Amino acid sequence: LRLVAVLRATLEGEKAAVLKRDHHLPLSFHRRQEELKFGLGLQRLQHRVHEIQALQDGPTGKGPGLDGAVQSPAPGTAPQELPTLLLEAVKELEAAKQQVLKRIQIWKRQQQLAGNGATFEENLAPLQKRCENLVEVYFQLQQQVMGVSAELGPELLARLLERFNEVLSSLVKR
């Protein structure tokens, strides 16, 4: 029984050492996963911006397209597709904003814990890059919305601008 007790204590000690060592792996894994999710969301948002730009250029004849018969149905479909694309883009912008705000909150908490002696390795460069990328896409979308404000109607335009202002103000405040 004494041998079993010694082996059990040894195995529990090894288990605790393995868990302690591997405890830090999920944090870096989750951080990398978060970075990839944000990068994917930003790419999706930039793709939406390009889709909206292509839709705006298509009916006016600025963008690439076919002649005559194809352009006549496009103006009928563009006013319906444009608000949908803009609303989806704003929704994705808000989701990206939430990811940035979550990361800011994590950074603030790590900074607070550093005052109590915890290690604090995080610098502001990745966070600043996220904010700059998001604000760049924000301004592109806002310019596109203002460019088609006549086609959207006053109610939809006011709602979109309100959502844009909320995104920017929450980023600035935090």
Written account of the structure:
The chain is mainly α. It has one domain (26-56, 81-173): Glutathione S-transferase Yfyf (Class Pi), Chain A, domain 2 (Up-down Bundle). Helices cover 84% and strands 0% of the residues. It is built from 6 helices and no strands. Helix 2 (24-60) packs antiparallel against helix 3, helix 3 packs parallel to helix 6 and helix 4 packs antiparallel against helix 6. It is elongated.
What characteristics describe this protein?
single chain, elongated, 174 residues, mainly alpha, Glutathione S-transferase Yfyf (Class Pi), Chain A, domain 2
Please outline the helices and strands.
Elements: H1 2-22, H2 24-60, H3 73-114, H4 125-147, H5 149-152, H6 154-173
Helix pairs in contact: 2-3, 2-4, 3-4, 3-6, 4-6
How many H/I helical runs?
A: 6
* Radius of gyration of CA atoms, rounded to a whole number: 25 Å
Low-confidence stretches: 61-78
Q: What is the helical fraction, as a range of percent?
A: over 70%
SSE string, helices as H and strands as E: HHHHHH
Known CATH architecture: Up-down Bundle
Averaged pLDDT, please? 80
Number of strands: 0
* Largest pleated sheet: none
Shape: elongated
CATH superfamily: STAT transcription factor, all-alpha domain
* CATH class (first level) name: Mainly Alpha
- First CA to last CA: what distance? 60 Å
* Strand composition percent: under 5%
Q: What number of structural domains do the residues give?
A: 1
- Helix vs. strand class: mainly alpha
Query: What's the CATH topology name?
Result: Glutathione S-transferase Yfyf (Class Pi), Chain A, domain 2
